[in-house]
Design goal:
The chain is an alpha+beta fold and 286 residues long. It has 6 helices and 13 strands.
């Protein structure tokens, strides 16, 4: 298995090298001389996004939990053991029986329902506490070059399903992928760390999303994204994370909509190694 994974990693790097050059904003562990934060804050689109999508306020100016800054529970797709498999993972505020229904018709009238497992957790960002990590694996199901539609539920008995998303499988023998390194959401600075208005997470999320969106132009047929570690920046453990920084950074990392359509293969970086959240956000096959 290890040899196969090494070959897959080498192939990922090789196939990425054949892509057209990608003009992506660089960010991560910046120096004291970095102007990333100030440059981003001078973009009008950033300010509109930050005030109407990332942090939403009520009439009194209080931040509402409906803002995307407080959603650390979005579903993430992960490649399975073979090209016919796919993993799903997401957080929920209560524990039930998780399931995914998936089919080739957009209305899911032909969908099969696959049940999964929920694990007890106690992970929080600044406004939401999550009590379950949900994982579902759909195995020996996917055909090449086919579009599928899926929805998921935290509790199969409750019957409340998510909106419908799409996933398109690609050729399994000749494929394209995207390699990213150190997205490290939250690393651009320390302004407001551990508070509702963490500028660093907002700036990095905005730029990370722009990078992921570039895939639609540069690598529209990518089979998956390979992230080489340090998806988030906060390197303390669960006990020292009194400001709930880690899950707030995860809200930024999993924010891009494209991550609901393209599988994400991650490796653990040193910044994730001291916390428990890495194992709960991704349904890795091994």
């Amino acid at each position: 298995m290890k040899k196969r994974w090494i070959r897959a990693l080498a192939l990922a790097m090789a196939t990425t090298a054949t892509l057209n050059p990608m003009n992506a904003l660089a960010y991560g562990e910046t120096s004291d001389k970095s102007t990333l934060i100030s440059d981003t804050q001078n973009i009008s689109d950033y300010n509109t996004w930050k005030n109407t999508v990332w942090n939403i306020t009520d009439e009194e100016g209080n931040l509402k939990r409906e803002g995307q800054a407080y959603d650390s529970g979005k579903v993430i797709l992960t490649p399975g053991k073979t090209e016919k498999d796919l993993g799903f993972a997401w957080y929920s505020e209560s524990k039930g029986k998780p399931a995914v229904k998936i089919g080739k018709k957009e209305d899911l009238s032909d969908a099969k329902t696959v049940e999964g497992e929920a694990t007890d957790i106690n992970r929080a960002n600044r406004k939401i506490t999550y009590k379950a990590s949900n994982m579902v694996s759909v195995n020996n199901y996917f055909e090449e070059n086919t579009t599928y539609y899926y929805a998921y539920t935290d509790d199969l008995a409750g019957g409340k399903w998510s909106q419908t998303f799409s996933y398109t499988s690609r050729d399994a023998s000749k494929f394209q992928t995207v390699l990213v390194g150190d997205p490290q959401v939250g690393a651009s600075g320390r302004t407001g760390q551990g508070t509702d208005d963490d500028i660093n997470i907002a700036v990095d999320t905005y730029n990370w999303n722009k990078t992921v969106e570039q895939m639609k132009i540069t690598a529209p047929n990518a089979s998956f994204i390979l992230s080489a570690g340090d998806q988030v920046d906060y390197s303390g453990n669960d006990e020292t994370d009194t400001g709930n920084v880690r899950e707030s950074e995860y809200a930024g990392f999993i924010y891009p909509d494209l991550l609901r359509n393209v599988p994400l293969a991650t490796t653990i970086g040193n910044h994730e190694s001291k916390g428990t959240d890495y194992q709960y956000h991704y349904n890795n096959p091994t």
